From TrEMBL:
It is an enzyme of class 5 (isomerase). GO terms for cellular component: cytoplasm. Its cofactor is pyridoxal 5'-phosphate. Belongs to the class-III pyridoxal-phosphate-dependent aminotransferase family. HemL subfamily. Keywords: Cytoplasm, Isomerase, Porphyrin biosynthesis, Pyridoxal phosphate. It comes from Methanolapillus ohkumae. Gene3D superfamilies: Aspartate Aminotransferase, domain 1, Type I PLP-dependent aspartate aminotransferase-like (Major domain). Its EC number is 5.4.3.8. This is Glutamate-1-semialdehyde 2,1-aminomutase. CDD domains: OAT_like. Its main location: cytoplasm.
Length: 424
């Protein structure tokens, strides 16, 4: 494959954009490919190369790229103008749909990104409980703001900076960490801090270090613990939302959190974030209450129109049953390849998420870090050369979409077979 144009673009990009990218996970070494267009399951770069995409914009594109129904909704809205600074009926229509998928989300507010959603949800939890501390899970990623950039997953782990400089210790001292799937550690830290503990924020399935699943009853016990100790439970469903099931992980695992954050799929690929939950909590948000939160682009008409279109399409076509079955079959094929090659690797995943961990089954962040991340990157490059775009890090989840075809899966399976290392 020829990457000359991308290489040249990267040289220029680096001179004017730090690291040549607008978000660190995109900085594939030695240089990223620069995209020209994408359609369905395929993504095309500036040199004319075609890839089957399993990165899928890191989650939003559950119907594939450039979906005609979403596109039509956006184009229709463009004709009427795309930003007003006053309310639209679109916001009500999207909110009603989200609430019908997520009964725990009785009220919600729209923002422009998942980061903004978790930032606002944490502020709201602190305002409601009048307490300061939060607990997050090691390796959990909730966006790129101060309170949550402590032992964070995703790009923060890939680039070796899970704790970012530039964040005052006065802020991070209020962010407590606990390993995933360890209910005893959680119980201890809650007990010790309960007088000043506002919330536990958690990705119910740890999605930003590859999907790591909750062990039996972990989430149920966490729900009970938080309720008993007067701190709120925030489910960050920016990845799992609309993906595991229409009502996300809370429907899949039958847990009712106090607050929920959504994003990614919720805007059909347009920028969006949502935070919502119990009415008595949400009513504290300005102007109905004193907790301040605002945004010029919040409830942006194209994002709302695209969100409505994607939710209606998914519901009408009941995509989950088929898509999740495809996920199961695909993971099974991958597991067989790994077993055939006698690798001690582990294929993890749920619904339409998957990852091949280059190591034994992990249950938390520390165990994920033991995987052979360098070996994964060698594999990643071989796959890219064979026209398959996986996330450029061991510490990210892979996504399938309704646009991926049997032919895509066959090609991908063959490439895994060819490129996974032989047992040393
Ligand atoms: C992507 C992600 C975020 C951040 O969302 P942005 O839209 O990138 O700001 C927050 N939480 C989780 C679980 C995510 O996967």
């Amino acid at each position: 494959m020829n990457f000359d144009t991308s290489k040249e673009l990267y040289e220029t990009a680096k001179t004017i954009i730090p690291g040549g990218v607008s978000s660190p996970v995109r900085a594939i070494k030695p240089f990223p490919f620069y995209v020209e267009s994408a359609d369905g399951s395929k993504i095309y770069d500036a040199d004319g190369n075609e890839f089957i995409d399993y990165c899928m914009a890191y989650g939003p594109a559950i119907l594939g790229h450039n979906h005609p129904v979403i596109k039509q909704a956006i184009v229709r809205q463009l004709d009427k103008g795309w930003l007003y600074g006053t309310p639209t009926e679109l916001e009500i229509n999207l909110a009603k749909r989200i609430s019908s998928f997520y009964p725990s989300v009785e009220m919600m507010r729209f923002v422009s990104s998942g980061s903004e959603a978790t930032m606002s949800a944490i502020r709201l939890a602190r305002g409601f409980t009048k307490k300061n501390k939060i607990i997050k899970i090691e390796g959990g990623f909730h966006g790129a703001h101060d309170a949550v950039l402590v032992k964070a997953g995703s790009g923060a782990t890939t680039h070796g900076e899970p704790n970012s400089p530039g964040i005052p210790t006065d802020v991070t001292k209020n962010t407590l960490q606990v390993p995933y799937n360890d209910i005893e550690a959680m119980a201890k830290i809650i007990e010790k801090n309960k007088n000043d503990l506002a919330a536990v924020i958690i990705e119910p399935v740890l999605g930003n270090i590859g999907p790591v699943l909750p062990e039996k009853n972990y989430l149920k016990e966490l729900r009970a613990l938080t309720a008993e100790n007067d701190c709120l439970l925030i489910f960050d469903e920016v990845i799992t939302g609309f993906r595991l099931a229409p009502g996300g992980a809370q429907e899949y695992y039958q847990i009712k959190p106090d607050l929920t954050t959504l994003g990614k799929i919720a805007g059909g690929g347009m920028p969006v974030g949502v935070f919502g939950g119990r009415k008595e909590i949400l009513e504290l948000i300005s102007p109905s209450g004193p907790v301040y939160q605002a945004g010029t682009f919040s409830g942006s008409p194209c994002s709302m129109a695209a969100g409505i279109a994607v939710l209606d399409y998914m519901k009408q076509n009941r995509i989950w049953e088929t898509l999740n079955k495809k996920g199961d079959a695909f993971r099974k094929s991958l597991s067989e390849i790994v077993a055939d090659k006698k690798l001690n690797y582990y294929v993890s995943g749920i619904a339409s998420l998957f990852v091949v961990f280059f190591g034994e089954k992990p249950t938390n962040y520390q165990e994920v870090l033991k995987c052979d991340a360098a070996g994964y990157m060698e594999f990643f490059k071989k796959m890219l050369d064979d026209g398959i775009f996986l996330p450029p890090s061991q510490f990210e989840t892979n996504f399938i979409s309704t646009a991926h075809t049997e032919e895509d899966y066959e090609k991908t399976i063959a490439a895994f077979e060819k490129n996974l290392p032989k047992k040393k």
